[in-house]
Amino acid sequence: MLTERINEELKTAMKAGDQKLKVATLRLVNAAIKDRDIAARSEDRCGGMTDADVLAILTKMVKQREESAKVYEDAGRIELAEQERAEIEVVLDFMPKQMDEAEMTAAIDEVVADLGAETLKDMGKCMGVLKEKYAGSMDFGKAGAMLKKRLG
Prior knowledge:
By secondary structure, the protein is an all-alpha fold. The chain folds into two domains: 2-92, Hypothetical Protein Yqey, Chain: A, domain1, CATH 1.10.1510; 101-151, Arc Repressor Mutant, subunit A (Orthogonal Bundle), CATH 1.10.10.410. The protein has helices at residues 2-16, 20-42, 51-74, 78-92, 101-115, 123-133, 140-151. Helix 2 crosses helix 3 (51-74) and helix 2 (20-42) packs across helix 4. It starts with a helix and ends with a helix. The model has no long low-confidence stretch (mean pLDDT 88).
């Protein structure tokens, strides 16, 4: 399971002693996972965190860091922007390879054909299938725009 892999990497990084950025980033990841797990349990979803839940957290963390890095760059704080990008690299190690635009187009075409989608009314069904099949490896913001253009 993904949470176990993250915990093992954290232990290894802590033992190495020279990987402070990795240790700090993995601790942030663990904290986010625990927060979401507590929220899920309070909603009576006692199954705990799935790998899909963890991938959603990691995706959100990458997006937040990308936005922060841009803000820091715009403010002339290059060292902070570089730290955010280094944290992104640590988080990306636990995510599947991100799809490029050609792969996303092929996946969208496949889902549209499988579902027989023709209009924007079918967009929700298509996005649901894409999120189920490609969680963590597809940028759904871009995919939504591509799908809208395809069905529109």
